[in-house]
């Protein structure tokens, strides 16, 4: 087994595990914190061969802003989808749209795909083998070009700033 | 007041589950039925949380979490089976 | 329930909006004409509905027991992370099965 070259090979995984453990136990006592820290250091250490190398740095401030925007969008999107679903179904204009990706790493692409699935009237359905195109199904698409432009500006650019700028 | 609201919500969720069940029975294709099952388990989480509120007990959390985990895994497993013919390649 | 009535209003609002959204998702699932359109109802409306319902339960138990009870957040996180994944898998399966789609759908799905 290849040994990790650092004590905490995946710091964000450690943080996630500790927070997850505390939430699961639903208390913030010293014992639980200790147990969480033990799990958070042992599990990444034992499983580090399975994780892809995480060389990118995370920009926490921008991530928080992005999450806040996405949550607002999700709520607004749901009002819109509710209106579409409850309205007459003759007015719907469903469409498959090919979205040209400019992101490069797998992780940021999957974050983008999940964001698209959760926001206004779009579900990401497939990705091409060369990671260049994303197939999106829209419930009510008036203008494909406008939809692509909106996703590009609202989600793809922030995701690139958060995850990819610092890729060496 | 909260008791009444919880009862109303239980009614609404049950109605949603009936509608989902209609789709589960009508189909017409396998993905439709899987989607209906998926929705059904998410609604079951809602039902269990509401029951916990109604009975004023915090113990239903684990059940809800388990349903969430098992439901997700089974949805992905069945979809994968449709897609590839086997689950673990 | 005690004196904290603002809490009751907040919890009631969260519960009601949550279950109404879940109902909208189910109506969408029942009513829309083809599979790809039906996929939209459950992935968005039901996820948000159950998410807000769970948050309502979290607020209730936090105020009632006096200590923050945040573990319900795990369910909400889990639902929001997994909903797009299962929608994606189902969409792929549906394209693989070449399900009928509405004639007015623009664009073409890909071969699987």
From TrEMBL, chain A:
Topological relation to the membrane, as annotated: Multi-pass membrane protein
Annotated keywords: Cell membrane, Membrane, Transmembrane, Transmembrane helix
GO MF: monoatomic cation transmembrane transporter activity
Chief place of localization: membrane
Domain of life: Bacteria
A Pfam family this chain is assigned to: MNHE
TM ranges: none
One CC-aspect GO term: plasma membrane
Compartments in which it is found: Cell membrane
Family: Belongs to the CPA3 antiporters (TC 2.A.63) subunit E family.
PANTHER family xref list: NA(+)/H(+) ANTIPORTER SUBUNIT E1 (PTHR34584), NA(+)_H(+) ANTIPORTER SUBUNIT E1 (PTHR34584:SF1)
Name of the protein this chain belongs to: Na+/H+ antiporter subunit E
Classification of source organism: Bacteria, Pseudomonadati, Pseudomonadota, Gammaproteobacteria, Pseudomonadales
From TrEMBL, chain B:
Membrane topology per record: Multi-pass membrane protein
GO terms for cellular component: plasma membrane
Membrane spanning residue stretches: 5-22, 34-54, 60-83
Cellular compartment(s): Cell membrane
InterPro entries documented for this protein: MrpF/PhaF-like
Single GO molecular function: sodium:proton antiporter activity
Pfam entry (one): MrpF_PhaF
Keywords associated with the record: Antiport, Cell membrane, Ion transport, Membrane, Transmembrane, Transmembrane helix, Transport
Keyword Metal-binding assigned: no
NCBIfam families hit by this protein: PRK06161.1
Protein family according to the UniProt entry: Belongs to the CPA3 antiporters (TC 2.A.63) subunit F family.
Name of the molecule in the record: K+/H+ antiporter subunit F
Organism: Halopseudomonas pachastrellae
From TrEMBL, chain C:
Gene Ontology terms, MF aspect: sodium:proton antiporter activity
Protein name: Na+/H+ antiporter subunit G
Top-rank lineage group of the source organism: Bacteria
Organism: Pseudomonas abyssi
Coiled coil region boundaries: none
